[in-house]
Prior knowledge:
The structure is a homodimer. By secondary structure, chain A is mainly alpha-helical. Chain A folds into two domains: 11-82, Orthogonal Bundle (Arc Repressor Mutant, subunit A), CATH 1.10.10; 94-233, Orthogonal Bundle (Tetracycline Repressor, domain 2). Chain A is built from ten helices and no strands. Chain A has helices at 28-42, 49-56, 70-82, 94-111, 115-118, 127-139, 147-173, 182-197, 203-211, 218-233. In chain A, helix 1 (28-42) crosses helix 2, helix 1 (28-42) crosses helix 3 (70-82) and helix 7 (147-173) runs antiparallel to helix 10. The longest helix of chain A is centred in the last third of the chain and has 27 residues, at 147-173. The radius of gyration of chain A is 22 Å and the shape is flat. The relative contact order of chain A is 0.09. The mean pLDDT of chain A is 90. Chain A binds a DNA duplex through helix 2.
Amino acid sequence: MVGRPAVPEVIWARPERAGRGPRPAFSRADIAAAAVRIADAEGFDAVSMRKVAAELGCGTMSLYNYVPRKEDLYELMLDAVSGDYEFPEPSGDWRADLVALAHQARAMMHRHTWVPRLMSPVYGFSPNALRYLEYTLSCLDGVDARFGEKMELIAMVNGVVTTYVANEIATAERSRSLPWSEEQEHAARTGYLISQIATGKYPRMAAGFAEDPGPIDLDGVFDRALHRVLDSFDR
Amino acid sequence: MVGRPAVPEVIWARPERAGRGPRPAFSRADIAAAAVRIADAEGFDAVSMRKVAAELGCGTMSLYNYVPRKEDLYELMLDAVSGDYEFPEPSGDWRADLVALAHQARAMMHRHTWVPRLMSPVYGFSPNALRYLEYTLSCLDGVDARFGEKMELIAMVNGVVTTYVANEIATAERSRSLPWSEEQEHAARTGYLISQIATGKYPRMAAGFAEDPGPIDLDGVFDRALHRVLDSFDR
DNA sequence: CCGCACTACGTACGGTGTACGTAACTACGA
DNA sequence: TCGTAGTTACGTACACCGTACGTAGTGCGG
Lengths: 235, 235
């Protein structure tokens, strides 16, 4: 009997090893690593219970002994990649520390492009997420602000990071799984956009795109947005 | 022969009615409305080609005459709900105008809670999206800034709106589709959180949550974040 | 040492997106 | 005017998904 819970359960509250029965063949870290490997290699949508089980070398339904619902697998994946963070001693300059942390997060999301799709306050309490939050708070130790204000700052920084990286990834990967090339895709979309602008219904966009500032500097856009958020909390 | 395209296609570039053949039984607006009805009533994940076709009263595969891929259905849905926007004459106070627009967007997303999940720059060029963008630019007509700066402002405002509403919705709907009550879910999660904090590994979070400021004022959090972004562009 | 809680896993069900084939229909080119 | 090409309509079929359920084997707690 598998024993699906009739009551909510946080996977982290579950012991990895139960008292009775044979010792589990895999650890949570094994499972998370397998799922991350698949997501990195074949894309997030390729992560299925069957494929993860195959990657581990076990039967599909055996996975459900470790992971009661697929959502919990996602939680394991997020926690696993959050283990990549390095948390150096806070420097005393909280702005610099948060910028460094945001850059770490951005780099991690570019390594694991599926992460922004999972980001949600629902998955906020995995062990590594708690470590991350505690460290971020430690960077703000010298700041004279209420706890709530600090949390709002952290939420805004995290929001900017995931939003911007999600956009960067979306534009970069849009054509990856499509049966045509990136140039073709881009040509089709800008071609349509040009045809719309040419109707004269969007004069301001027409004027704007007429300037043609060349390719967008994604790093610059990201850093400007990040610093704007930090500035808005710096009094 | 259905004729799936071998080359990228923007659905908006496709004429609604082709020259030959029987007249289509439905308009794009009909299809979008049906999909929106399902998503509103049963949740985004309930939107399937079969259900939309059933809602319209036609065979499943007939839908593919109108919508080559499911992604295009999403695009139709986003455009449909974007038609709800009202675009009053800009007041001359661009901050107030953008705040009003952000509140409209937030209200719309609360009416259609699946919208944040679809928000992506990939779906940026539907007719109503272009109208929205052009109107927002018109609110910034008096502002002395380059086109690129204005676009960055708009992107940040949109990002804040979707991020914050997505969070509001996620926390509100988390337990809706689960087989247990919201109280049970909340109890399980906070119970685990408390147990973790009690380990002493997270002193700053422990101190913060000890204050217990009562329920979170979501409207206030949203407005503060929005105004911070606007402030950061106001020199 | 018994019994039970656990692990392992095959089968099966109801769902998904969509490729493909066929039949009916209509507007255009000759 | 008429044939035909291109469109609409739609049933069938395939590969895949999450996961409920049943069964068999395993090893610790009482």
